[in-house]
Amino acid sequence: MPTDLAEGVLAGDRRAAARLITRIEDGDESIRPALARLHICGGKAHIIGITGTPGAGKSTLIHKLAKCWRKAKKTVGIIAVDPSSPFTGGALLGDRIRMQDIATDPGIFIRSMSSRGNSGGVARATADAVRVLDALGMDIVIVETVGAGQSEVAVMDIVQTVVVVVVPGLGDDIQAIKAGILEIGDIFVINKADRDGVEAAQRELEMMLEFDDSSRKGWRPQVVRTVATKSEGIEELIEKIEGHRDMMKKEGLLEESERRRCRREVLELLKHKAVLSLLAEYGPDDFDALVKAVAERKMHPHDAVERIMERKKG
After folding, report:
1. Can you give the CATH number for the domain in which 90 is found?
2. Helix, strand or coil for residue 265?
3. DSSP three-state, residue 106
4. What is the value of pTM for the model shown?
5. 161 with 276, same domain?
6. Residue 25: how many CB atoms within 10 A of its CB?
């Protein structure tokens, strides 16, 4: 029974958590009461999003962060959202393979999830998976996103602290930040800081942050240099991450942030359910006929949508 899985999660049963996340990914509607139970009992974990372009070293950075937090006796849940296989829909990269030496630690829970084509770099199921790990008792829950650039802004709908990872010497990374990630980052990490160009990258990043007019009550975005492969800068990064959460608690911003995130999540779910409801009522054959008419330029997409909406009204 799904409720048994929820009680297992609350009792710290990792297998129950794994099975529940699998059912979340499968879109099993029968687990909704279990998720409601976990939602009520959650809210204690610090949820951190780690994003940035592919090749920036996000997985290695997370690996080192997890090991450092474990030394401090904190438990860590990691959800790595990977690109989807075009054939199976499953995750391709399999971050658990790259974190083998911590995967057996009872204080660490690692799960790779497929993005399944969902925009924003995060799987639709990620928010509920985070709730499961929160209810499991993880002190820290890390969400690593696919790393697709500007669309990574969707990560802010799930997490409390956003860490953006870039590397020196790649203008594309800085351009990606200019394209939209700048506004969501609470902490910017220049990883692989032993490379040439780190000084220039930091200057440019700090200059961009000087002119950033996005609202961050009580917090000035921080820039940290790391060399994750050598564990350099990891402790300083943890200080900045924990400092951000402490500030949010002190200023009463955690509750405000949670309300904003929940509002976005409810709206996103509402849109998803509304589309499914409309398509179910219109029928797949009629819908395909509309798409065909649009493709053949016999009908504008707006008119196709209006036709579907009219059927609903009728």
Report:
1. 3.40.50.300
2. helix
3. coil
4. 0.85
5. no
6. 21
In a domain, 257, yes or no: no
Total number of domains in the chain: 3
Full domain range(s) for residue 210: 42-251
Torsion of CA 303, 304, 309, 313, to 10 degrees: 80
Would you say residue 146 lies in a domain? yes
Helix (H) or strand (E) holding 32: helix 32-41
Give the list of residues 6+ apart from residue 2 with CB closer than 8 angstroms, or none.
Answer: 20, 23, 28, 30, 31, 32, 33, 34
Give the integer Cα–Cα distance in Å for 155 and 40.
Answer: 22
Residues 65 and 11 in one domain: no
Does the residue 260 lie in any domain?
A: no
pLDDT at 216: 62
Burial 30-65 (b: 16+ CB within 10 A, else e): ebeebbebbbeebeebbbbbbbbbeebbbbbbbbbb
3-state SS, residue 36: helix
Interval 168-210: pLDDT, tens: 876 555 555 555 667 778 999 999 999 998 998 888 888 888 8
Contacts of 258 (CB under 8 A, 6+ apart): 43
Confidence band of 121 (pLDDT split at 50, 70, 90): very low
230 shares a domain with 104: yes
Average pLDDT over residues 146-152: 54
Residues 216 and 203 both lie in one domain:
yes
